[in-house]
Input
Amino acid sequence: MPASLKDVAARAGVSVGTVSNVLNRPDRVAAPTRARVESAIHELGFVPNAPARNLRAQRAQVLGLVVPDISNPFFTDVARGVEDAALDAGYSVMLCNTDEQAAREDRYLTILESQRVSGIIITPARQTLRPLDRLLARGVAVTLLDSPRRGSEVCSVSVDHETGGRLAVGHVSSLGHRRIAWVAGPRDIPQVAAREDGVREYAREHGLTVTALPAESMSAAAGEEAVRRALAQGLDATALVCANDLIAVGAMRALRDSGLRVPGDMSVIGYDDIDFAASAAVPLTSVRQPRYELGRAAAELVVGECRDRSTHVHRHMDFQPTLVVRASTAPAPDRGTSTTASASTRPPVEEPR
Amino acid sequence: MPASLKDVAARAGVSVGTVSNVLNRPDRVAAPTRARVESAIHELGFVPNAPARNLRAQRAQVLGLVVPDISNPFFTDVARGVEDAALDAGYSVMLCNTDEQAAREDRYLTILESQRVSGIIITPARQTLRPLDRLLARGVAVTLLDSPRRGSEVCSVSVDHETGGRLAVGHVSSLGHRRIAWVAGPRDIPQVAAREDGVREYAREHGLTVTALPAESMSAAAGEEAVRRALAQGLDATALVCANDLIAVGAMRALRDSGLRVPGDMSVIGYDDIDFAASAAVPLTSVRQPRYELGRAAAELVVGECRDRSTHVHRHMDFQPTLVVRASTAPAPDRGTSTTASASTRPPVEEPR
DNA sequence: TAGGGTTGTTGAAACGATTCAATCACCCTA
DNA sequence: TAGGGTGATTGAATCGTTTCAACAACCCTA
Output
């Protein structure tokens, strides 16, 4: 039923080769012929068969986007950037949500291999690039997303999380906080490890105390639970530096439920500057990452590599995070004094957008 | 370089047909042969070529997910549901973000047609199913997502938005509010129109006044702007019923900036119950939709139709929204009295999860 | 006018899987 | 032992493109 090249060729009275040329190298075809073919295409409603084209070409005009969790607003914005850039370049995007499960990631990588995708943008679920080897051997363009660069076999785009960590702790430090708690998900998430490195490094350089409050995952629920536990055990800190905004939101929930005030009793700073950071119970100070741009850049790198495999050199793009100061951070209370901070001690609120 | 069926066949000393049988009808192959083939597959690291299979099969094991805006948390959760169900059924998901632009939607539909996807889950950018006709004619399974059912040519899953609208306005009505403002994006978005119908219908039945505050889009910025404008012009209402949570969040920002208190001076209710509704400056009362389930159901319907085209009958699944009462709604202030409501007049806060 | 360039068009061979009629190798029974 | 039946395997056609060597038609120049 659906029209094929052959049907178009028959209708236009030319060979299939010519129709193919009209599609792919219009300049090689004489104007009158081209016109005839084009109207045949139009009349038959011909839409090229991508699988056939991909079979012949040995690769599909498709990119795989492999992320741990698309419902994390960070990846959501990245996905938009990837998708826009891909569409501009004539590629489609296959969405692969790993849930941070290695098995699911493996499964998806096999599917992408089977689909013969041209490129993959991935935030790997684990430290090793091992599962990607097979794809790389096949010549698939891979770009690591927000994941520490490893070797020079692939491109990568990332945010400088170490700087991000330093930025966060530096901010509360400049407000006079000396005892800091670092609330984070599992350290085997590379981005988290880098942020923590930045935090600890800065703390060491400036003589700050850092207590780690381990959270089960990077979710609000986990952040809430971690802080609740720490409070029950008598947490000694005046500022919570959180590994991401979800954790920070959870942390603030736990603080509120314990009757502690943010930022009066405890300053809280997040990471990611998700859309709702500005609208949280107390607008959240955070570290902003250029998410959409990150996604766009990743897709552009991959497409660039696909387009010109020979001259391509792998690049590492580092995006710098920026501090967004809102209301959840304030000068440290004097040790031993009242836990109620007056509103007038708050720093001015900056609300970009 | 990559191994093909032929390579596997050669290695195992059988014909390609047999290898194909091992893959697709293992029971047709004698055990020893099967073992030999399987180890050849393993040794060569053979991964089937999906384009070739799809070319032959005339359709790809792929579903298209066409949504207006993946960064809207509603669609994000739907996407997860779709993706999980698709993966379970052996399908991949192609992500298509239309930005509510008809042209972009058309472009994506053509791409999906070209890819020969088996099914499409779509929230159309406009009222008509016209752009889908071509796909339907081709036998592609289509399921409408959260969009009014039209005709019986396709399946659909949706939330009963009219009930949702009634639920929202019914809630504030039961708190004593008589003058309501309806804050909404463009009415040509069908879901919004349905919610509005529910609101107006209920208001008519109960003698409430409804003022419409048109917002440019379904975003926080638009909600903020709409309410800001209305306040400047002397809005006469005690409750804002918002077409979604993003708008509600924006509305609350505008109220806060104008020195109005929520819910003391103005009750606000949203729609969608996105993740952050519970953590907003004032925890937001909202209407919850079963988002993930909606996505799963949509994907299952599509897959069901793909699997058994002959006996398939189109179904419409209606999911019922539920009211989630939090702190942003309170009894209406007495007409003409102080604009400051005491905390004790608030209804008890219910925080499900 | 023969020969050499251009320019346009053709036809057939891939690409890698699926499918199905045909064949083969057995075993069982009459 | 011939013949029928069963189960396993094969081989070739097919899906719809792309690509490229070969060919055709034409003009230009020597």
Chain A touches chain B through 52 residues (CB under 8 Å). Chain A has twelve helices and twelve strands. Chain A has three domains: 1-46, 53-159+293-319, 162-288+322-350.
